[in-house]
Specification:
11 strands; 7-stranded mixed beta sheet
Length: 503
């Protein structure tokens, strides 16, 4: 390979490695800090800052010592740093998150320093490649623009390939650990073209690391029964004290809970099971948007045997985990749909007595599930007298997210009320018609929940917002981030809440 071809290959692969590392960063951080807007802002912001520092350093170093061997050593160092990331990330993030898991701003702080410690050094070195390569490739000033344009185009194309191949092919096929190792091996191989063939031993060593099986990403306190990286998120089932918990990208929040001897959990899922008592007729059709591992559907199958349930879950890997470990298949009246909540409602013609919206990755709400247009669609899919219930995160002294969602819902529903079931989880309930009473017959196991609900559990009717959230304007992340940061600044901590049905 000619010197120019080697240089161009190096620039191209540096672009691949940079974006592959950034995408993998989001996957490694997600089990600890989630994949919210603020986590992505930390990843993208620090990646750009690292590249800027690399560009500046690369230009200075290249002017002082324009040596192909030095460039090769810089890229090899970057390759080794990328290769070591999957093996040091777990202990570093375990230590960091152990002190932040119960702090509301843990995702903000932890993801910032996690990105800074694990990924920034390698990205700084990779950022040095383009300006260094321009200095080496530049023969005369008259062609400077052409040379710089060609090399930055190569770097950008590499970045595009690194983004799409990593996200769409590599991570789903071989996982995050091996994706990082493949990227590191390609960088080391490119560096060897500058340093000599004997340096291919570094590439071979990195390839050998692929034989090490990936371990549990974040075992937590309990036995890991199941762990997979789906195209959507990190999915993990952990068993502790006889109960099985489903964790997704947040790493801390439990999205489904299974107990061997009861369908009631003591968590917010139980509150949804009490809602049919607000209907003026037996419940026949229920939609659970955000079915996860099927905790709510499992309880309905036993406590409301007249109900046919459509469980809508965007990620098939989550449904698979539910079938294997969380009792998802225990209810023959449950039909699972692998679909996003809003497109599913748009396609179906079914009329429901009750629609449950638990698709929020607490505390963040997908904006398109929090708008007037979405709630208008929900209203169309409810039978007369039907009810919708939303699981909304709150913190003490700040219910702004709940107030905005309830006020927007009230713009489309006849009557909206809030049931503050737990400190950090409130249900926002919308009625298509004025509530004229409720069922008197229900399973005695939910007696305590029904008492909480009907004996003053609901707030007075909520007034519509003057400016409801819409698909065009729904500042969900801004409201949620402000809520979290304000609570964290006051020293707030997240402690487990239990409903009175907890065993």
């Amino acid at each position: 390979m000619s010197a120019r071809s080697s240089l161009y290959t190096l620039v191209f692969l540096a672009g691949v490695g940079t974006l592959a590392t950034e995408i993998c960063a989001s996957r490694l951080l997600a089990p600890y800090y989630g994949s919210s807007t603020i986590v992505w802002a930390n990843i993208i912001g620090l990646t750009l800052a690292s590249l800027a520092l690399g560009y500046w350093l690369g230009g200075r170093v290249a002017d002082r010592n324009p040596s192909p061997q030095l460039l090769g050593r810089l890229v090899l160092a970057a390759a080794l740093l990328v290769a070591v990331i999957p093996f040091v990330s777990s202990p570093i993030l375990d230590v960091a998150s152990s002190g932040l898991d119960e702090v509301s701003a843990g995702a903000v702080i932890g993801s910032f320093f996690g990105t800074l410690l694990l990924f920034a050094p390698a990205i700084v070195l990779l950022g040095m490649v383009a300006p260094f390569a321009i200095r080496l490739a530049l023969v005369e000033v008259a062609s400077a623009g052409q040379v710089a344009g060609r090399l930055y185009a190569l770097s950008t194309v590499g970045s595009l390939i690194g983004t799409f191949v990593t996200a769409l092919i590599a991570i789903p096929l071989i996982g995050t650990q091996r994706t990082l190792l493949v990227s590191a091996a390609l960088l080391a191989a490119a560096a060897s073209t500058m340093l000599g063939r004997r340096w291919l031993v570094a590439t071979a060593a990195i390839v050998a690391l692929m034989l090490i099986p990936p371990g549990a990403v974040k075992a937590g306190d309990g036995e890991v029964l199941y762990e997979v990286e789906s195209p959507y998120q990190f999915v993990q089932v952990v068993e502790r004290a006889g109960a099985r918990r489903l964790y997704l990208n947040e790493g801390v929040a439990v999205h489904s809970l299974w107990r061997p001897d009861t369908v009631l959990t003591g968590g917010v899922w139980d509150a949804f099971v009490a809602l049919p008592v607000l209907l003026d007729r037996p419940v026949h059709r229920v939609a659970v948007l955000g079915n996860a591992g099927g905790t709510i559907a499992r309880a309905y199958g036993e406590l409301w045997p007249s109900a046919q349930i459509d469980g809508v879950e965007i990620d098939p890997a989550v449904s698979d985990a539910g079938r294997k470990y969380l009792g998802l298949g225990d209810n023959p009246r449950l039909t699972v749909h692998d679909a996003d909540a809003r497109p599913y409602l748009r396609r179906t013609d079914t009329k429901y007595d009750l629609i449950i919206v638990d698709a929020y990755h607490q505390p963040y709400v997908p904006f398109y599930l929090a708008t007037r247009e979405f709630f208008e669609l929900v209203h169309r899919r409810l039978a007369p007298g039907g009810i919708v219930a939303l699981n909304v995160a709150t913190v003490p002294d700040d219910r702004s997210l709940e107030e905005n969602l309830a006020g927007t819902l009230a713009a489309e529903f006849e009557s909206v009320h809030v049931w503050p079931v737990l400190r950090f989880n409130h249900l926002v309930i919308g009625f298509t018609e004025r509530n004229s009473g409720g069922l008197k017959s229900y399973d005695p196991r939910i007696e305590s929940l029904v008492t909480l609900l009907v004996d003053g559990g609901l707030s007075p009717p909520v007034d519509p917002l003057e400016r409801p959230w819409t698909d065009d304007r729904a500042p969900v992340e801004w409201v949620t981030d402000r809520m979290i940061l304000s609570y964290a600044a006051e020293g707030g901590r997240l402690d487990e809440d239990l409903l009175p049905t907890a065993p």
